[in-house]
Amino acid sequence: MTDRPTDDTATRGRAAVLVVSTSAATEPSLDRTGPGIAAWLRERGFVVEEPVIVPDGGPIAETVTAALLADARVVVTTGGTGVTPTDRTPEAVAPLLDLELPGVLEEVRRRGLAGAGPTALLSRGVAGIASTGAFVVTLPGSRGGVADGLAVIDGLLDHVFAQVHGAGHAPRTTDGAGHASRTAEGATS
Question: What pTM, to 2 d.p., does this model score?
Answer without folding.
Answer: 0.85
